[in-house]
Protein 1
Amino acid sequence: MTNESSGPDKGMFDAAVFANKHIKGKFYRLGLEFYGDGAAAFAKARPGQFAELDLAGIPLPPTDAIAEDLRDASERKILLRRPFSFCDVSSRKDKIRVEILYCALGPATLRMTSLSPGKSVSVIGPLGNGFQSPADKKTALLVSGGMGAGPLIHLAKTLAADYPKMGIIAFAGAKSKTELPFERPTDEISQQLGFALHEFARVGVESQLATDDGSAGYEGFVTDCFTKWLGRSSLAVKDTIIYSCGPEVMLARMAKIAEDKKIDCQISMERMMACGFGLCQSCAVKCKVNGSSETIYKLCCKDGPVFDSREVAFEL
Ligand SMILES: Cc1cc2nc3c(=O)[nH]c(=O)nc-3n(C[C@H](O)[C@H](O)[C@H](O)COP(=O)(O)OP(=O)(O)OC[C@H]3O[C@@H](n4cnc5c(N)ncnc54)[C@H](O)[C@@H]3O)c2cc1C
Ligand code: FES
């Protein structure tokens, strides 16, 4: 799994936890620090790539800290590593820091909440193909649903640094205000900066917020918020690219919007993953064959998780 000539591109490494912050509700942000070969590999990590974490040996939090609806599930044995994308990658002297925005919803992610600074985690990565760079585009529109925000926060930072003249706008949606995986109260930030979300504002990226129940921002699906915004804008479609990550039903909708408007669109898909690098075939994504009605299966972990939206044959 390594490339000797230029340092490893990926591999299995031990990472040290430097932070594990509870954001609110079931949302957390884990900070991992890599040294040596691990630092060399993760320095090359691109937005949209992911890593497989071994969380089996981590103890569960105390029972009274586990939400009642997760207590039965929390006892389930963890046989496999779990995949997570990155919301930030940064360098600090000879170390690389990788941050993961995560939601505690089952046995592995509940264990993840117990990781405290100084603990070590076995990580395989960086894996998969991330978002492609938009060299010839003037505007990038980032659309996330729920936990899909993580890789798009990372992408916003990278695009803002690599393409300082590019217009970048983020659209983030969730079921309700409490389901938004962001740190600061949204109204405080919007008052101070005129931008909805701190996570994007800190890299100079404007953002719009939508919640299905209207408890924060636009009332309705983020895809509707996005469509209305697009309708009011006068963007040249050939200069524009959409990047999206979130639940599959939302990605299918984004793919349709992009197809109707003829805008290039890259989507980050999710599948249950076992190996994470193309061996077990557990993460198949049905894809269209160009110029034919046939379909083939590609692997989310190896060919993706980011796909061109025209490629995926959604079955919803
Ligand atoms: C490429 C990739 C990147 C990811 N990035 C992140 C991230 O940045 N932050 C984050 O919180 N989560 C992310 N996930 C999802 C994460 O891997 C799962 O939440 C985790 O595996 C759940 O493990 P668990 O044992 O706690 O819960 P489990 O008991 O395994 O799952 C709990 C519930 O979530 C569903 N679920 C679990 N994994 C997935 C999945 N991959 N797709 C759809 N439904 C699933 C299960 O069906 C079940 O209902 C990512 C997944 C993939 C494939
Ligand atoms: S997770 Fe094993 S092939 Fe994709």
Note: Confidence is low (pLDDT under 50) at residues 1-5.
Protein 2
Amino acid sequence: MILVGVIYPILTLPGMSNDKTWTSVRGQTEETDEISTEVIEIHMKSDKLGSKVWFDPIGVYIKPGQTVRWIVDENVHTTTAYHPENNNHSLRIPRGASPWDSGFLFPGSSYEVTFTVEGVYDYFCSPHEVAGMVGRIVVGNPTGPGSKPYDYFKNLYDYFKASREPESWIPVPPAAQEAFPDIELIMKDKVVHYK
Ligand SMILES: [Cu+2]
């Protein structure tokens, strides 16, 4: 008599995800959320005519080490840091933090940035900045150039004669200044939606 070995089907194990940590408890697989590695999603929106454009949420609070993922829902957008390296815009992210510029993003595409330096990060959408399409991210302590008045780089020289900020930086346009959510509101609510 010939014994035929039984071939067991290969079990499919749950894959490791970037967002989740899998832990085995008494033979069962459970999913555990870890706040510090949660990816925060911000959608890039537009009405059908393109006359109304916005980031949603427009303000978020995260912890150092967390990643933000921008996703285009409608229209074409960029996510671009307020930084002199980005077309001489004024500095509104922490000193020492790397500026980012996604370039044009089309519907369905996304772009990620991981934030490690604490402070306030202001950013804009290149084609829609003058229409007020901007957003604000607070990473840990709400400090740095992004926490200062929009014209800080012009006033310091006048008041203290000690500024090293170039006065040629492009200021934040009025509609964008109007759109930014207050830092205090972001600290309180953690997520601030566009109104
Ligand atoms: Cu846009």
Note: Residues 53, 77, 125, 127-128, 133 surround copper (II) ion (CB under 6 Å).
